[in-house]
Automatic annotation (TrEMBL), chain A:
Residues in ABC transporter domain copies: 15-217
GO cellular component, one term: membrane
UniProt-listed InterPro entries: AAA+_ATPase, ABC_transporter-like_ATP-bd, ABC_transporter-like_CS, ABC_transpr_TagH-like, Bact_Polysacc_Export_ATP-bd, P-loop_NTPase
The keyword Oxidoreductase is assigned to this record: no
UniProt entry tagged with the keyword Transcription: no
Keyword list, A-Z: ATP-binding, Nucleotide-binding, Transport
Protein name: Lipopolysaccharide transport system ATP-binding protein
Domain of life: Bacteria
PROSITE patterns in the cross-refs: ABC_TRANSPORTER_1 (PS00211), ABC_TRANSPORTER_2 (PS50893)
């Protein structure tokens, strides 16, 4: 693991990882000796307030596992992660969508699963409908949507989420050309406000364009 | 441009000069190409010829002034600029040239005067504004430069310099993030840039953003479980043509089957047996369906668990609430059946409420425990149907309590399901108050069980997302 451009430090450290390792059990159990797959090993870095940190790595390098560790979804097997009291969330698109239900219900459900309260989602329902450009389709079951429409709804619900640290798995590509531009514009606004962002990508160019510094797995 | 390209440019301008010798640009541009290559004498020669050919145009003189600047002959350049100002007053290029020469001489305040004249006279033209900002860059006054570039961006949003050169200034100030933002703004536009800066200044939570808590409080969690269960029912109903009607049809058909088989065909158990059977069977079905539905729920929720942070308790609880919603209708049907069968409601039916609540607690404890164990030992799912069968026959649904030998009765009642079913019968069939102490013991056991379940879930919460994919 190497780190580049360390002089770009800005705010205080809000999350720090020390020698984090994660392994998954591949097979085995009660009767056989278990075999493990080491997904992450000896990962150490700090996340500073307000920075945009890029995580670079090939497929299977453990990028998504790392995001789950930072999000607090899984605990590392070795090493430790210290969160200095900040909220962390993955940008989860279409979380918990039910194809049988209309767009409005899915927006409420998905938003609540991400951590909004029902009131917060309901208050933004008109904005969500407007941003996603779904019109009357908001009241139709999601199973009647095209995949582009589904991802438009998913993004429109998720974009209001502003945790202290936002975790992005790849920069999004949602919907058609026009909506993609709109979504990207909105996303870049987040990345470049004082939001702390951890961006996982396999494109070095993307990392250079968006991040203050980056770490290769 | 690189050296080789300027070379090529020189060659091409030479060809152009032969064809379009009466165009001033051909001469001036050729001189620029030579100047870039450092061939000052050649450039000078070309400009001299151009001056002779086009005495009424300022362009050769302007380029000559540039050439003199490059050569370091600043006095000559200044003289040329003065001559130009006299001969071509009110010409934009001349004003800009004067400012350029003054700036080259290090006289920035004079340069600013010429530049201001240009900006005021040609407000619609971008060049004076670009020069205005560049003058600040030359003075290394980066924050002033940033301000002026911002003005450039506002006036001429299509001009790339407004973004790229401002980014250079931001870099020079050591503000890397602003520099990156400026470069991106070239792609996303000025409105985007301003909205980013607005959010920087704004409060943490604006109308536009939501900062989700690290951990939900119990009310939001309960609301989430409730919403998910309600929507699951809605989703389930919308899959069928008859929709919600099935929630009534299903138990009616079920009860009819037992009525026909046990009440009419077999005439088993004597009069009143069918009421006895159904008051046991209906609550038991609720238990069985719920346990079966929820036992695999945590494994089934692995996709969601990896996307959002959620207590694994969510998954079995949703199943319980969902089944309970449907069950309330079934209990309604049972009540109607009993009334028609000749067992009309009495005051004792009020005890139905505490009994249902105790059964709900028991189901929650059992369902959550099984859902918790299954991810660790998937084989358990194969045992659950058998376990439910076992319970079906040991809870006294098809036989009455007096069939059990006296010495086995206390053992029989340690099965909490048998105990609860007995209470239902007391209320509905015998029209008596339930055995409160028996019910109390079951309730106490459930409270203990539930506390243990909650404790274990808290402990195991970070382990589940790993276990479900292993």
């Amino acid at each position: 693991m190497k780190s580049s451009d360390l002089n770009g430090m800005c705010g205080d450290v809000i999350i720090s990882l020390q020698n984090v390792g994660v392994r998954y059990k591949r097979r085995g159990g009660f009767l056989r000796k278990p075999e493990y797959f080491q997904a992450l090993e000896g990962v150490s870095f700090d996340i500073h307030r307000g920075e945009t940190l890029g995580i670079l790595g090939r497929n299977g390098a453990g990028k998504s596992t790392l995001l789950r560790v930072v999000a607090g979804i899984i605990q590392p097997d070795s090493g430790e992660i210290v969160n200095h009291g900040v909220t962390v969330s993955l940008l989860a698109l279409q979380a918990g969508f039910d194809a049988e239900l209309p767009g409005t219900d899915n927006a409420i459900l998905s938003g609540m699963l991400m951590g909004y309260t029902r009131k917060q989602v309901e208050a933004r329902l008109d904005d969500i409908a407007e941003f996603s450009e779904l019109g009357d389709f908001m009241y139709e079951p999601v199973k009647t949507y095209s995949s582009g429409m589904k991802s438009r709804l998913g993004f429109s619900v998720a974009m209001y989420m502003t945790p202290d640290v936002l975790l992005l798995d790849e920069v999004l590509s949602v919907g058609d050309k026009d909506f993609k531009k709109k979504a990207e514009t909105e996303m870049m606004k987040k990345v470049h406000s004082n939001q702390t962002v951890l961006l996982v990508t396999h494109s070095e160019q993307q990392a250079k364009r968006l991040c203050e510094r980056s770490i290769s797995l | 441009m690189r050296q080789a390209e300027w070379d090529k440019a020189c060659e091409r301008w030479a060809i152009m000069r032969q064809v379009y010798f009466d165009e001033v640009a051909v001469w001036v541009q050729a001189a620029i190409a030579h100047r870039k290559l450092g061939q000052f004498d050649l450039a000078n020669g070309l400009l001299d010829s151009a001056r002779e050919r086009f005495p009424d145009l300022p362009d050769p003189l302007i380029e000559l002034a540039m050439l003199q600047c490059e050569r370091g002959c600043l006095a000559e350049a200044e003289a040329l600029a003065a001559e130009l100002r006299k001969r071509f007053p009110g010409n934009l290029a001349v004003m800009l040239n004067s400012a350029r020469v003054s700036a080259r001489r290090g006289n920035l305040s004079e340069a600013l005067v010429f530049n201001r004249q240009a900006r005021e006279t040609f407000e619609e033209s971008s060049e004076p504004w670009l020069q205005y900002a560049e003058l600040a860059m030359q003075a290394k006054d980066w924050s002033l430069a940033l301000e002026r570039w911002q003005e450039v961006r506002q006036r001429f949003p299509k001009h790339a310099e407004g973004f790229t050169r401002a980014a250079v200034a931001a870099d020079a100030l050591g503000d890397g993030s602003q520099a990156r933002r400026l470069r991106l703004a070239q792609e996303y536009g000025n409105a985007w840039l301003e909205s980013v800066q607005d959010t920087d200044l704004g409060e943490n939570e604006t109308a536009h953003t939501i900062n989700p808590p690290q951990r939900r409080n119990w009310r939001t969690f309960a609301d989430l479980v409730w919403t998910k269960a309600r929507l699951n029912l809605k989703s389930e109903a919308s899959k069928n043509h008859l929709r919600y009607l099935w929630w009534i049809l299903d138990p009616v058909l079920y009860m009819t089957v037992f009525y026909v088989v046990f009440g009419i065909l077999m005439e088993r158990g004597g009069p009143g047996f069918i009421a006895y059977l159904l008051t046991g069977l209906v609550p038991f079905q609720w238990f069985a369906k719920t346990v079966q539905h929820t036992s695999n729920s945590i494994v089934g929720g692995k996709g969601l668990m990896h996307k959002v942070r959620i207590s694994p308790l969510f998954f079995p609880l949703v199943g319980i609430v969902q089944n309970t919603g449907k069950q309330l209708l079934v209990f309604g049907m049972l009540g109607i059946f009993l009334a028609l069968y000749g067992l009309p409601p009495t005051i004792h039916w009020l005890a139905f409420i505490p009994i249902v609540l105790v059964q709900l607690m028991l189901m929650t404890a059992v369902s959550c425990t099984l859902a918790m164990l299954v991810p660790f030992a998937r084989d358990l799912t194969n045992l659950i149907p058998t376990g439910i069968q076992f319970l079906l026959f040991t809870s006294g649904i098809f036989y009455t309590i007096d069939r059990i030998p006296e010495e086995w009765r206390s053992l029989f009642f340690t099965n909490p399901m048998a105990n609860i079913l007995y209470q239902y019968r007391q209320v509905f069939v015998e029209n008596q108050w339930p055995d409160w102490s028996g019910l109390g013991w079951v309730a106490l056991g459930c409270v203990v069980g539930l506390s243990m379940v909650i404790f274990l879930y808290r402990r195991l919460e970070p382990i589940f997302p790993r276990v479900v994919i292993e």
